[in-house]
Amino acid sequence: MSADGRAPVRILLADDHALVRRGVRLILDGEPDLAVVAEAGDGAEAVELARGERPDLAILDIAMPRLTGLQAARELGRLPDGPRILILTMYDNEQFFFEALKAGAAGYVLKSVADRDLVEACHAAMRDEPFLYPGAVGALIRDYLERTRDGRDVPARAITDREEEILKLVAEGHTSQEIGGLLFISVKTVERHRANLLQKLGLKDRLELTRYAIRVGLIEP
């Protein structure tokens, strides 16, 4: 129970590195009004746990197996009364930052300064206020000014959510048959999506798809 008598914020923490989870948990459990109630080692497990535990807040890493943090954030956003979402990442990357906002995240926190920023970000999220690290604020302003000057809208994502799922699984080394089984779709559908990915991204083969997936943070090198 926190000092004001309210129940602590119930937090789901998802990161595929146990050591990172332990360190983040130490930061959060040191606060009387915050409590980690569940831990996940990948994005799919995070979505499953969220359905059962119904946390108030989910803290998600970006680069995780099965589902990335951004993919998990989109899934959590579809849940009735889903949790507020923070992205905790090593990537100081404008593309990930904007994708996180589009996925419904309330904040974007860098792991390198988690000991300084994470607790504040949790409190901001629970007040329905955005939390952005200083570099992200600059990115937002710069992007807005550039779009205003050029008369452009925010660019659409190059690939669909389903194509992103398949890209990740291809890059992780799964066969078309395995991907079809995991996603409950036919092998022919998998092959069609993979062909679309190659065409959209201007790539030639699985190796180039894998390099692209690493570059955009779907898998770790």
Provide the β-strand percentage band.
Answer: 5-15%
Radius of gyration: 18 Å
What coarse outline follows from CA principal-axis ratios?
A: globular
Number of domains: 2
Quick check: average pLDDT? 83
The major pleated sheet works out as: 6 strands, parallel
Enumerate how many helices there are, as a single number: 10
CATH class of the largest domain: Alpha Beta
CATH topology type of the largest domain: Rossmann fold
One letter per element, helices H and strands E, the order comes to: EHEHEHEHEHEHHHHH
Strand order of the largest sheet: 2-1-3-4-5-6
Organism: Streptomyces solincola
Modified residues (4-aspartylphosphate): 61
Domain HTH luxR-type: 152-217
Protein name: DNA-binding response regulator
Keywords:
Arc Repressor Mutant, subunit A, alpha/beta, Rossmann fold, 221 residues, 10 helices
Write the SSE topology.
Blueprint: E1 9-14, H1 18-29, E2 34-40, H2 43-53, E3 57-60, H3 69-77, E4 84-89, H4 94-102, E5 107-110, H5 114-126, E6 131-132, H6 134-150, H7 161-171, H8 176-183, H9 187-201, H10 206-215
Parallel strand pairs: 1-2, 1-3, 3-4, 4-5, 5-6
Helix pairs in contact: 2-3, 7-9, 7-10, 8-9
In brief:
Helices cover 52% and strands 13% of the residues. The chain is built from ten helices and six strands, in the order E-H-E-H-E-H-E-H-E-H-E-H-H-H-H-H. The protein has two domains: 9-143, 3-Layer(aba) Sandwich (Rossmann fold); 161-215, Arc Repressor Mutant, subunit A (Orthogonal Bundle).
